[in-house]
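re the bet — no i am not wrong, look at it urself. input seq straight from the record:
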Amino acid sequence: MEAAWKDPKLANVLYHDWEAGTYDEKWSISYDERCITYATDRFRAVSGGVGPYEHALELGCGTGFFLLNLMQGGVIEKGSVTDLSPGMVEVALRNADNLGLPVDGRVADAERIPYDDNTFDLVIGHAVLHHIPDVGAAMKEVQRVLKPGGRFVFAGDPTNIGNFYARKLGQLTWWLTTNVTKAPALVEWRRPQEELDESSRAAALEAVVDLHTFDPADLERTARAAGAREVRAVTEELSAALFGWPVRTFEAAVPKGKLGFGWAMFAYRGWQRLSWLDENVFAKVLPREVFYNVSITGRKPL
């Protein structure tokens, strides 16, 4: 652990191995219609279409959320997954097997992708670029393993401005919840102190594994410098992020099972309605830099 504070790649391995078994639950990840729709909508919003693509690679796959839901949505026919974390690759392959999807996987560094040139029709990632020390090197590797004319889509990374307000809201919500629940009348809403301490240690390690936030224009320049063409970055979630980060932080700060189905529906429906507001109102009048998530796409030249 001490070495991890000075080595972001080691920190990513340790942190994500630790998170692998509970990651889907922590982030409300599923492999049903809810997340299939979410993944395909995110893909379509940045790429302008949904394939199908014969063979896709996911970098920093985590538990397989993006790839597996895009496969179920008919965007991808065959998949490969890579991650620095052996634990995440193991869980992603297990999820694929449970869903009956044709997926292989390797433990791998995004800056040195272990596949031959011109292998994939599509390379994807979700919330991965901000974990990679050298994003430019990874983009060059993506161009190498793509077939001529192949596309990449990276979604769900934080913008500079969005990360600032999301972090501040999360920290404030955590402080309020963990302090208010010290009151005797609210003790049933307080997680055991050892669990709170463990979550605090995880949050501290996130400062090591979360390496970047992005300006959309700078991210576009990085992709073009790697050789990509038809590059386009889009952003999403403003009011949805202002709502979602406190909600997720509150969920993490209270005992499991305390909130129930009604809360889950409130959180999901609230996020849905605010996402619609962001897409149909705020995105038309506000600069893209103020939104929380940035996604980017481009192609390898023919």
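see?? The radius of gyration is 19 Å. told u. also The longest helix spans residues 260-285. so pay up
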